[in-house]
Amino acid sequence: MDFELSMEQDILRKTVRDFAEKEIAPKARELDEKEQFSLQTMAAMGDLGLFGMVVSEEYGGQGMDYISYIIAVEEIARVDGSHAATVAAGNSLGIGPLYYYGSEEQKHKYLPDLCAGKALWGFGLTEPGAGSDAGGSATTAVLDGNEWVINGSKIFITNASTPISRGVTVMCKTGSRDEKRPELSCILVENGTKGFEAREMHGKMMWRGSNTSELYFEDCRVPKDNMLGLRGKGFHQMLETLDAGRLSIGAMGVGGAQGAYELALRYAKERQQFGRPISTFQVNAFKLADMAMEIEAARLLLYQACWQKDQHKSFSKSAAMGKLYASEVMGRVVNEAVQLHGGYGLMKEYNVERFYRDQKLLTIGEGTSEIQRLVIARLIGAI
Amino acid sequence: MNIVVCIKQVPDTETQIKIAGDGKTIATDDIKWVMNPYDEFGVEEALRIQKAKGGEVIVVGAGPKRVTESLRTALAMGADKAVLIEDDGLYGADPLAVAKILAAAVKPLSPDIVFLGMRAVDDDAGLVGPALAEFLDMPNLSVVTKVEVGEGSVTVQRPVEGQTLVLEASLPAVISAQKGLNEPRYASLPGIMKAKKKPLEVKTLADLGLDKAGKAEIAALTPPPARAAGKTISGETAQELAANLAKALREEAKVI
Ligand SMILES: Cc1cc2nc3c(=O)[nH]c(=O)nc-3n(C[C@H](O)[C@H](O)[C@H](O)COP(=O)(O)OP(=O)(O)OC[C@H]3O[C@@H](n4cnc5c(N)ncnc54)[C@H](O)[C@@H]3O)c2cc1C
Questions:
Q1: B159 - beta bridge partners?
Q2: Does the B2-203 domain belong in CATH 3.90.226.10?
Q3: Which chain A positions have a beta carbon within 8 Å of B34's beta carbon?
Q4: pTM of the prediction?
């Protein structure tokens, strides 16, 4: 057993932390307040190399291991959830499927710009009528000569309608195997294609600095070659993508919890009531001790899952556990972190307020906590 | 143009320093080590000059094995090569001894410019730069916020009491960096991967034919006195406030 990070991972953590504190933290509150996606911070994250982290250099990626990627997401989430979302969705949902299932031509066409952070790509799975039950997608793609004709809509799709969004991977019904089981396939649709519109969604409670869209397809025609990987493999590709994606949501949980905990610890040591720092009241000291412990436990669980992935071992169960546990730990941490801030914790002027809101996505996105429990229950043979 | 940057590894500025059991050193268990922030300015300036004039940037560090990480960080920022003089006893050693050791390591690299930070944020001595210049027999340009390299010479600026001194020296020269010289770049992720493959040479004091015997030794370390809470002076009018302030300064603080 070796719990030591490699020197590169250590340097990476320091670099991304430094970058996040200097380039993202000062802007996060305003972007949240204005519900604005920032092209400027996006470009800076691209320049640092935060996109295509696990993609090989051949396609413009960084060729790092999965733990490195998770550390980077964790460090961004430590200062801001929205930026962490842009990076995590960009890598896991945008770049991931193209890299793992794309043809050489597709990879060379899209990956260099995506890995440089010059473009973003969305992953369109969720529909108004198909969320947790993603297999129930109603969006259809019908082959007409050399083209797929797509009809339907998607909702809550991250990174799909920024000025630099280049396209989306859309899961469509391309036929049916039998009465009950549809044939699902993933198809690439570039922004600007006739019949396709990505409309930005507003009024989010959390991740307000990240971009979320509704996608509309109306007789949208794309070349037959825009199929991602094999026809009928869509559901499988989606499950694999989500397995890996869960690790990055877990990283947002660990990083966000770490950030909120640090804010709470600092505040509790400074704030005096009854003539002493509130951190010295045992009830509060114990809360902070619990936070530190739970964050550490979540981090270990998550890193173990990443290690399994890096070692090409099966990691589905640990990924579900890591995501579930980290997102719920962050829930407990932000709750007590706001409590320790008293009335100030309820004010937007205090960053802990944003952490409190941003946390809530983590128990819902990329598989709700209930779905994670379902995945784990199946994998341990309870169901 | 070959440029050497000397790098010291120091505790992260956020570290809460504790004194070790021996009363002479700091407890290093929970410390996160980073490149001395002033040295980062040196690395950045070296890389900018290299971009304009070509040549090589070599970073040199002295200390225990962990210093490798700071050297790799400089390589990840873009430096070409690194040299580590590895010795466990060098951290906290006499600055003059350190300067002598660095001089022995730097000399064979025949640099045109040697950069270092104007001081290290841990011991704040600020001695290594000038001493290194002396041992290398080069002009010493300390506390510099602007560097312009000419033909065989260099012009630098040093802020002094609201004014700016402009100094010119022949090359090679030793320049110590002050905050404001530049905005250091981040070690990019591709840079971190490239740094893995860049050469890092490890030398011992014996290789340099030196020992670390210095003249100064730390006899004891004591923490600074805990800062007492501030005192609010009260009073209705400006006169009353001033009178109360004067009274407190005389009778309590005993400074006037
Ligand atoms: C900001 C944001 C970004 C997103 N980004 C993307 C993206 O990029 N791409 C994408 O495809 N999707 C994205 N999503 C969608 C997200 O993955 C879904 O919201 C999520 O999967 C849940 O689906 P739903 O909202 O339809 O909830 P539902 O599935 O309707 O669930 C409602 C409730 O019912 C529970 N429930 C459902 N089924 C079961 C069951 N079998 N047993 C027990 N309880 C159950 C759920 O746990 C939940 O509590 C994003 C969502 C948000 C909010």
A1: B164
A2: no
A3: 14
A4: 0.92
